[in-house]
């Protein structure tokens, strides 16, 4: 006898022994409950008590599908690729093929079939190979369900254990299932749970994988192949076509023997090769998303973090997740980013859009590919730079100082006169307000008037004005707290230190900032003071189209992420009106973002040494941030915030705004605009004395990083980032002489 025959014979001997022993024990132990032809249950109450909850669900849940706002499939989440289908979504010939080869007496027995099992055993022994299974379809359904729903390895091992005890339990559960469900339901559940090879679980996934068709459209040539795979899924027609064809012909012979196909059908199909039209598995996870990979990553983190859903629930829930992603905005953002910064460049360019008043995240673009292997492609990135706080966003923080000033009664035309360079009258270089040298020197980018209103200081992005405004307010608490009220959540773990340390650099935005939360904060202005935490999802529905609920019966997705009047609407409207000058006036630093015919407000930002540059623009309908930076090291971004970031914003939003008209901002509130405070004159304090033994600045006017600059009187004072560098002699060539930031 050949060596290859030994394992096969061993398997048959094992099958024979197991069936004989199990059959005897089943007959003995089930005799009090059953009797007559086919083992019809007399009293199934005790059997039904044994049914685990996994077996009382009518169908496996299958893949979770993620949809964009327009219904486009973004990706799916699954452990086992499965799309359950209803009985009428499976072709009749497919049902017949699986019954004929696996359990030809399926419609006669009640879960156990001693006659059929004995006949299969004899036929298999005579053939020297397994041609028919030794268990009924119902028993196989029990076993596979318990295996797939096992939560521990111990439970899985118990479901696979080749012992008489396990087979007895399987038999009892099979009897109970037959009492509870119709034959068509049991057959459908079996076809939905069976494994067909190449990652395809269930008949619909298998039909798609091998033939690119739906289960309802399967004909005899395909059905015979799939019916043969449940016992030998490895021998599939893609990887092992000859073995698959042999098994197909066995199925066809059995169907012919039972009178379910004609001589001609048998001859025609067996004479033909398997008609494979490979479809492949659907995308799985965010690395395989069809669009918006970084959005998908944010969604998954939101599901598991904010909503508290487990990966197992997500991957096996069979849910439909309706997201907020707009494919048109995502595609426009992707193209706009790549227009300015090449894919995989050392500089990351990220574009993030949200909807004011709802918090819906509309797009997340970057010149990176999400989730792929960085060793194979330098453009691959697993860190979501749209969400994490990597670098500062510069003068975009001046808006928080302006909002705090308006809220405190300083009107939009509050005028300050400052020197250039300017040294703080209140705050110290190393933090605090009591002891040490003044914070400074602060200088502007380009030559700016020394006497400005708040309105013009925002448009021109005057550094000296906003340090002086912090002096006027007397504390950093107002601006930092305003940023939090507006939704800058990436500041949450720093804000106490900033406030307690009275860090005057706050208004210059040196702190690591999330592009998502920067856009979210500005959207509070666009929404007339309503602050909404970002959300990527509008609904999660179960297989029946009902909202998925938590343990208390409430939908896991609730419309409770917004806080009306987080800041006064009058303040928000006045500031939004003022910020239109940054984009739409000839003195603004963000004019490259302007799209004629639309009311657009915004603010530019540039960190020290142009290590990071930013622009945030908004309308009543949309808010989007753009940041460019090297996430791994310091690198000159090559422009100011009014350069490439403003251009990316323009390129991303122009095709969206071309779709139709947009609303105008409400007018500035007259009372807030006028304010209750008079104009101020801020003289420049004397430049600090410098000696050879204590040089507190380097050759560019920045405080040194050495701890020797810490005032002896406050050893625990937090060290604040350095003020901006000296002003360049002229704006960069790319700005065309326009104001810069």
UniProtKB/TrEMBL annotation:
Residue ranges, annotated region (Disordered): 659-741
Biased composition (Basic and acidic residues): 689-702
Keywords associated with the record: Carboxypeptidase, Cell shape, Cell wall biogenesis/degradation, Glycosyltransferase, Hydrolase, Membrane, Multifunctional enzyme, Peptidoglycan synthesis, Protease, Transferase, Transmembrane, Transmembrane helix
Pfam families reported for this sequence: Transgly, Transpeptidase
Signal peptide limits: none
Glycosyl transferase family domain residues: 70-256
Reaction(s) catalysed by this chain's protein: [GlcNAc-(1->4)-Mur2Ac(oyl-L-Ala-gamma-D-Glu-L-Lys-D-Ala-D-Ala)](n)-di-trans,octa-cis-undecaprenyl diphosphate + beta-D-GlcNAc-(1->4)-Mur2Ac(oyl-L-Ala-gamma-D-Glu-L-Lys-D-Ala-D-Ala)-di-trans,octa-cis-undecaprenyl diphosphate = [GlcNAc-(1->4)-Mur2Ac(oyl-L-Ala-gamma-D-Glu-L-Lys-D-Ala-D-Ala)](n+1)-di-trans,octa-cis-undecaprenyl diphosphate + di-trans,octa-cis-undecaprenyl diphosphate + H(+); Preferential cleavage: (Ac)2-L-Lys-D-Ala-|-D-Ala. Also transpeptidation of peptidyl-alanyl moieties that are N-acyl substituents of D-alanine
Family assignment from sequence similarity: In the N-terminal section; belongs to the glycosyltransferase 51 family.
Name of the featured protein: Membrane peptidoglycan carboxypeptidase
Source organism of the structure: Modestobacter roseus
Lineage: Bacteria, Bacillati, Actinomycetota, Actinomycetes, Geodermatophilales
């Amino acid at each position: 006898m050949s060596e290859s025959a030994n394992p096969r014979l061993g398997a048959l001997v094992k099958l024979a022994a197991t069936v004989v022993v199990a059959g005897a024990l089943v007959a003995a132990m089930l005799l009090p409950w059953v009797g007559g032809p086919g083992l019809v249950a007399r009293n199934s109450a005790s059997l039904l008590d044994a049914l685990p909850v996994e077996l009382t669900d009518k169908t496996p849940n299958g893949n979770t599908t993620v949809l964009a706002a327009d219904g486009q499939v973004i990706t799916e989440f699954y452990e086992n690729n499965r799309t359950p289908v209803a009985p009428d979504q499976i072709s009749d010939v497919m049902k017949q093929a699986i019954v004929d080869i696996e359990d030809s007496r399926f419609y006669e027995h009640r879960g156990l079939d001693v006659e059929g099992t004995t006949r299969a055993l004899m036929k298999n022994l005579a053939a020297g190979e397994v041609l028919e299974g030794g268990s009924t379809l119902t028993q196989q359904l029990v076993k596979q369900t318990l295996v797939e729903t096992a939560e521990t390895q111990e439970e899985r091992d118990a479901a696979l254990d080749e012992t008489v005890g396990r087979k007895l339990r399987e038999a009892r559960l099979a009897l109970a299932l037959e009492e509870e469900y119709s034959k068509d339901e049991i057959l459908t559940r079996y076809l939905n749970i069976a494994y067909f090879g190449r990652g395809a679980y269930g008949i619909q996934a298998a039909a798609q994988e091998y033939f690119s068709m739906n289960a309802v459209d399967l004909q005899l040539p395909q059905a015979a192949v799939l019916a043969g795979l449940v016992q030998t899924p490895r021998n599939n027609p893609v990887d092992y076509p000859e073995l698959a064809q042999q098994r197909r012909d066995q199925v066809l012979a059995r169907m012919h023997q039972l009178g379910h196909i004609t001589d001609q059908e048998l001859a025609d199909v067996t004479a033909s090769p398997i008609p494979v039209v490979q479809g492949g598995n659907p995308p799985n996870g965010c690395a395989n998303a069809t669009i918006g990979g970084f959005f998908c990553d944010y969604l998954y983190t939101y599901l598991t973090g904010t909503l508290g859903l487990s990966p197992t629930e997500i991957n096996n829930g069979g849910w439909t997740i309706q997201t907020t992603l707009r494919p048109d905005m995502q595609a426009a953002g992707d193209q706009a980013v790549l227009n300015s910064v090449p894919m995989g460049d050392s500089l990351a360019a990220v574009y993030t859009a949200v909807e004011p008043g709802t918090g819906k995240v509309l797009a997340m673009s970057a010149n990176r590919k999400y989730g792929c292997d960085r060793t194979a492609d330098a453009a691959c990135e697993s860190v979501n730079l749209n969400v994490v706080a990597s670098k500062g966003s510069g003068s975009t923080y001046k808006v928080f100082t302006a909002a705090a000033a308006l809220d405190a009664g300083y009107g939009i035309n509050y005028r300050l006169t400052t020197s250039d360079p300017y040294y703080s009258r209140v705050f110290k270089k190393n933090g605090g307000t009591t002891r040490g040298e003044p914070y400074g020197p602060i200088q502007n980018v380009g030559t700016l008037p020394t006497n400005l209103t708040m309105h013009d200081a925002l448009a021109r992005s005057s550094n000296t004005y906003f340090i002086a405004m912090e002096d006027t307010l007397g504390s950093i608490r107002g601006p930092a707290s305003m940023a939090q009220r507006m939704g800058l959540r990436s500041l949450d773990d720093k804000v106490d230190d900033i406030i307690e340390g009275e860090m005057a650099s706050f208004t210059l935005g040196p702190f690591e900032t999330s592009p998502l939360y920067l856009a979210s904060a500005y959207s509070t202005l666009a929404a007339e003071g309503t602050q909404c935490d970002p959300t990527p999802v509008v609904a999660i529905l179960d297989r029946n189209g009902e909202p998925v609920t938590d343990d208390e019966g409430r939908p896991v997705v609730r419309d409770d992420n917004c806080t009306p009047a987080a800041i006064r609407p009058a303040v928000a409207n006045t500031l939004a009106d003022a910020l239109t000058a940054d984009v739409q006036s000839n003195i603004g630093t963000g004019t490259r973002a302007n799209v004629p015919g639309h009311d657009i407000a915004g603010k530019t930002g540039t960190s020290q040494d142009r290590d990071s540059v930013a622009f945030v623009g908004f309308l009543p309908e949309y808010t989007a941030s753009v940041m460019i930076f090297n996430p791994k090291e310091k690198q000159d971004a090559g422009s100011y915030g009014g350069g490439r970031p403003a251009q990316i914003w323009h390129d991303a939003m122009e095709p969206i705004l071309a779709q139709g008209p947009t609303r105008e901002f409400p007018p500035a509130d007259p009372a807030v605009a006028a304010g209750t405070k008079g104009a101020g004159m801020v003289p420049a304090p004397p430049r600090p004395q410098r000696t050879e033994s204590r040089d507190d600045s380097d050759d560019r006017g920045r405080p040194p990083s050495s701890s020797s600059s810490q005032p002896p009187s406050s050893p625990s004072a937090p060290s604040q980032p350095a003020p901006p560098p000296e002003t360049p002699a002229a704006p960069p060539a790319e700005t065309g002489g326009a104001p810069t930031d």
